[in-house]
Amino acid sequence: MCRPATVFSFQFFPAKVPATQKIKAIPGASVVLRPSAKTNKLAVGSESGGAKKKSEPAKKETLREQFAAIPRDLKRLWVNKVFVCRVANDAIDMLVVSGYFTFAPKYLEYHFRMSPAQAGKWNGMASISAVVSGALIGGIVIRRLKLQPKHVALMICFSSFMISICYFFLMMVTCEPRNLFSVTGPDNMLLVNSSCGNGCNCDRTPFSPVCDQSTGLNYYSPCHAGCSQSFTRSDGAKNATYYGGCSCLAPPGWKFSDPLDSVSALPTTMDDLDTVFPERNENDGVLKRGFCEGGCSGFMIYVIISTCFKFIGALPFSGNQMLSFRIVDQDLKSLSKAVRTLVASLFAFIPGPIIMGALFDSACRLWNTQSCGAKGACLVYDLDSLRLKMHLYVAIVKTAACVMDVYVYYKVRNMKFERKVEPEPVAEPQSVPTGSVRDLTAFD
Prior knowledge:
- It contains 12 helices and 12 strands.
- It is α+β, with helices and mostly antiparallel strands.
- The longest helix is centred in the N-terminal third of the chain and has 31 residues, at 81-111.
């Protein structure tokens, strides 16, 4: 998802880097630019010609010297308070990205009653379109307006603040949970076994939900509903599996707070069912495989808000990279990038999904039990608890990042992207032979 945004954003970096040194004309000689015979690069010399003087290449450090300088360079980085703040901010941002974006499809699936394919499609379309367009527009704005570090820092602060607000709004987008025929047992977990189905030995029955379309209730499996037969019926463009003779259905008006034993008095034969409930229709006692269908009106609201905050979060992407390189010395740019990547990997990409997964597990109400008795995957979530925990966690984390962004702005408010470099002293005229030629690459 982030690679397309990276590719597009790099197109809006400055086409030319401001020169760190200026070439000064030598007194007494007119400077002429012409291609060098050996290097095919522009060279500077006098019109009268003369012998060429090769510039001596700078002495390169050996591999041992480079490794020996790493501790010293790392110390230079970690004493830079602005750099440390940016590293912590990057880790916090990646903590949110790695956790939220990993579990977002699963949240859409359970909360808005969608299939895994639909949840993945909507999440991918919204994320890619928002991030790519945000990074593209943000890069154009930074380049056209020639924004300085203080402007970029303000853009980052605004982005973090708006993302925090968006997550607080997402906590308010609710959806009616699926009604599963069950009661609350110990440890706030759901119990699905009733006395009506005790003789069916449903304890080891795998989770296969069925829907009572007449009441909108879902049952753990056809066994738990007391169904004795199954058949296939055309349901529009495809065939659907139905179960009949279901004798352990909840009575009309059953509420989640009622005990499961209330179904024990239900009639067990179709004749008795006609006597007790003479107003029933042909679908009474017949269940359809799968959860009860029905969307949620808040889905599009959730998609629009989430797309907006992803777009806003991608606006300062290219400026964030430029600012991160500007706050360190020129010779530490590559090392600073390596340190930021290492810190983000250790403290964001690894713990991010673990923390979000723990939040999901804490909202589970019914666990799948494997044949060996071990706990498997979660089958039913407390959607209200999950919605609050997930979005409140991300909102608090982004608020902390916003506070650090304010500190970075305070430190870089007088900084410019162009670095000031002291010019080298000009050589004495008598020390330069007439007609000498120097390769311009020596000044790059």
